Amino acid sequence: MDDTSLTTLSESPEDPFSVHQSASAVLDDHGRVVAWSDQATSLLGHRAAEVLGRPVREVLVAGGDEALFTEAVAACLRERGWFGLLPVRHRAGHRVYVGFRARRVQRLDSTVEWLLVGSRAEDVVQWEVDRAVLDGFFRRSPVGVAVLGPDLRLLRVNRAIARFGGLPAEAYPGLRTSDFLLGPDAQLVEERLRSVLETGQPLIFAEQPCRLQRDPQKELIVSISAFRMQDPSGRVLGVTEIVEDVTDRHRARRRLALLNEAGTRIGSTLDVARTARELAEAAVPALADALSVDLLEPVTHGEEPAPDAVGPLRRMAVRSVRPEALEVMYPLGHLFSFPEQTAQGRCLAERRSVLQPTVEVDREWFLADRERADRMIALGIHSLMVVPLAARGVVLGLVCIWRWQRPEPFEEDDLTLAEEFAARAALCIDNARRYTQEHQAAVALQRSLLPSEVPEHPAVDTAHRYLPAKASTGVGGDWFDVIPLSGLRVALVVGDVVGHGMHASATMGRLRAAVHTLAHLDLAPDEVLARLDDLVDHLAAEQRQADADAPQIVGATCLYAIYDPVSRHCAMARAGHPPPTVLGPDGRVRLIDLPAGLPLGVGGLPFETADLELDEGSLLALCSDGLLLADHRDIDQGLTLLRTVLAGPARSLEHTCKAVEDAMLPDRPADDVTLLLGRTRVLAAEKVATWELSAEPTAAGRARALVTDQLTEWGLEEVAFVTELIVSELVTNAYRYAGGPVLLRLIRHSHLICEVSDTSSTSPHLRQAGSSDEGGRGLFLVAQLSERWGTRYGRNGKTIWAEQPLSTAAPDALGHAHHGETTPS
Question: CA-CA distance, 507 to 487, in Å (whole number)?
């Protein structure tokens, strides 16, 4: 049966020219009416008795329509049949349009008659429309149409189905779907059609993969719709199937879905390795059966590769639908290079994608590692794409995409999709690379600005926590310090620059450096803060002049405390910073009543120093407001919670820091957080010797005798000679220029510290004595004999101190002696 015959599908009760339901008449070869049906009477009003024997022209032709009838008769004679629409006269006198079909009939006696079958014009028009639609379905429709019987064998197909199956249309009747589709695909189609046949529930736009037996390597996606056919009595005649090839649409939709998924999955973190893994996870198995991501070595360290770099490469991600494939692919972290003649080498050298739809065992790129290549071929590899990872004009690496499980080779559309995947991934990898570079610079800056390790100090045991608000950079504006001072004293510092990130961190570094300088001048806490206040004003003015658009320094807070383990005296001052908390050895927690002061950079009012004594084993807690205000608390709530945690069970300082962190920082803080804990120590009394000397000429001699006796008692006779010289010079200088009582103190620890205090505030300094000068060499001699020396000031005068190490022999005084003496400034 071919598609030129419509008999099977057009002979139906709805045919308007069926002789059983249409008006009919018979004419002899002279045009006289010899038969007239009842339907003709119903249609035109003329009874049979009125028209039989009369010429049809007299009965049906109205005036002015004779030319149309003449033309119709001529057409009948030429073609031995005719079909058309003619106006005829109704018995009531009005004109009626009737569709006629004329057929020439030869009787047994060789006479000729004409059978006229007529129907209302509107019925004819509808029938013609239906006929044209049916003809369009089977002759012209680009969508496949197949008619199947109750046994699901094909009755008829249109030209689209014929082209789809690769057979002529007349070859399909009697076939089953499995005769031209692969088994699993044909089985799924027949199951769906059988369900339609049995339930009557239509199938609408059901998509499924489809492979033809004539081309099993090519996968098509078809959309199937189907409905059950029944006659008016309800008898099931079969099922009509409408098939559309939607492969291109499906691929475009899948491509868009894959790109959307890739956009959400790739680049979730600013980590180069994680981004490479996300690319592999997004592409396998959606696009490829196996995939590897290889980055140029500098990229993995956050650096930008050279413009012409082609290696070495480090494998950052590998993924496969078959685990055994991972055994023959380079592992994660492997460092290697591709030879120039390989597809990968050409991709890097030429900065363009390479598509190899068919991979053969003797291809050049296999020469790089023949044994590994043979193992991969054995697994069934047959197609390869290599795509460069390029962003902002820089090639960062490449992606190798393999196919071996799916039989169809890669096509240009697959390469386009892979390039879009790679472009998105490359941008994310470059962002991660840049972040890595900036993060490393930020971490290096932070490490240079903050103490990496707090040194042990005889005055305090310490522990600390530093958590920047911006975890992505690892830097912030908070800082802390533990600064050794003269006389075994120590300075504990916590500060907070307003703001976060690199700008605040750079400002913090300048303030921390200034604090170190001021601390080594042995200034009182309020004096240190006053000078920091001036510095912040200066930095702000300097920055406004340099770049008005840059983030401006708007202030900082600071808490500065000095603890003396000899006297147990602690002096502290704060500039807008939260007050310190002290946990006594008896377990009682108290908040120090310390004047708040204005933040640094506000200026206008002096700072105040508070003095207190701390028992041995007291815990001093200094923190920034980021700790107290975390979790939407106010300052008072934060201080209360901090006191509660500190008053908990006795624990080490590190465990105390952890307890504070767990209790007060449940989430990542919105502000930088710094916590510095210090547990005080007290120097044993037997390691300190103090004498008060009257201001008289014999003071230096008495000082030498006292020092000699004390060093003998301590078993330090080897440093006695040098110490006598130092003490003699310092006491003589105090007697000569101070004019009041002199306090001499020796402190024994890892160093031997000599301190001479007087009531003068005059600052001594070194000077170069001339050859004829009688003095000016004493302080120079002290500097040569000691490891360190300096001056600190108190409320009632100054103290000059000098330190000698006890772990090595004392300097040779005679070998280093120079004539010199201290003079007042």
Answer: 31
Q: Is 611 exposed, middle or buried (0-12, 13-18, 19+ CB in 10 A)?
A: exposed
- Burial (Cβ within 10 Å: 0-12, 13-18, ≥19) of residue 326: middle
Alpha carbons 85 and 126: distance in angstroms, whole number: 13
Phi-psi region of 586 (alpha: psi -120 to 50; beta: other; left: phi over 0): alpha
- Tell me the per-residue pLDDT of 585-614, one tens digit each, with 9 for 90 and over: 988 998 888 888 899 888 778 899 999 999
| Tokens, residue 680 | 């005080």
* CB 699 within 8 Å of CB 742: yes
Contacts of 58 (CB under 8 A, 6+ apart): none
Q: Give me the pLDDT at residue 98, please.
A: 80
**Could you read off the pLDDT of 398-419 as tens digits, one per residue?**
999 888 888 888 888 889 888 8
Residue 455 exposed, middle or buried by CB count within 10 Å (0-12, 13-18, 19+): exposed
Give the pLDDT of residue 339.
Answer: 83
DSSP 8-state secondary structure symbol assigned to residue 361: T
Output the six-digit token pair for 180.
């031209």
pLDDT digits (tens, 9 = 90+) for 242-283: 888 887 787 777 777 777 777 777 878 888 888 888 888 888
Span 756-784, pLDDT tens digits: 988 887 766 665 554 444 445 677 888 88
Cα–Cα distance, 754 to 369 (Å, whole number): 75
Instruction: Give the CA radius of gyration of the chain.
Output: 52
Q: Closest Cα partner for 674 from 506, 446, 469, 444?
A: 469
Q: What is the dihedral of CA 536, 797, 787, 563, to 10 degrees?
A: -60
> Residue 753 corresponds to which amino acid?
I
Q: Inter-axis angle of helices 272-283 and 412-449, to 10 degrees?
A: 160
For the four alpha carbons of 431, 433, 435 and 437, in that order, the dihedral sign comes to negative
Alpha-carbon distance 595 to 560, whole Å?
12
Identify the helix (H) or strand (E) that includes residue 216. strand 215-230
Sequence-distant contacts of 131-136: CB under 8 A, at least 24 apart: 131/6, 131/10, 134/6, 134/9, 134/10, 135/6
Backbone φ and ψ of 210, nearest 5°: -150, 125
Using alpha carbons, select from 330, 255, 264 the residue that is nearest to residue 295.
330
| pLDDT at residue 303, as a whole number | 86
Could you tell me where the DSSP H helices lie in 301-379?
323-326, 343-350, 370-378
DSSP H helices, 111-173, are: 121-139, 159-165
Which residues of 382-456 form beta strands (DSSP E)? 383-391, 394-403
Q: Tell me which residue has tokens 């807690």.
A: 621
Residue closest to 408 by CA, chosen among 254, 245, 213, 218 = 218
**Rounded distance between C-alpha atoms, residue 44 and residue 762, angstroms:** 141
**Could you tell me the CA-to-CA distances from 310 to 291, 387, 634 in Å, in that order?**
19, 14, 57
**pLDDT under 50 in the chain at which residues?**
1-13, 361-362, 472, 770-775, 808-825
- Tokens 């979790």 correspond to what residue? 631
Angle at 680 between CA 676 and CA 686, to 5 degrees: 155
| H-helix or E-strand spanning residue 167 | none
Structure token digits, residue 69: 């009838």
| Phi and psi at residue 184, to the nearest 5° | -60, -40
Helix (H, G, I), strand (E, B) or coil at 559: strand
Rounded Cα distance between 327 and 544, Å, is: 61
Distances (CA, A) of 259 to 280, 353, 385, 419, 456: 13, 19, 18, 11, 57
* pLDDT tens, residue by residue, 697-751: 888 889 899 999 999 999 999 999 998 899 888 888 887 777 778 899 999 988 9
The C-alpha atoms of residue 762 and residue 736 are separated, in whole angstroms, by 12
Length of the chain, please?
A: 825
Residue 598 CB partners (closer than 8 Å, separation 6+): 575, 576, 604, 605
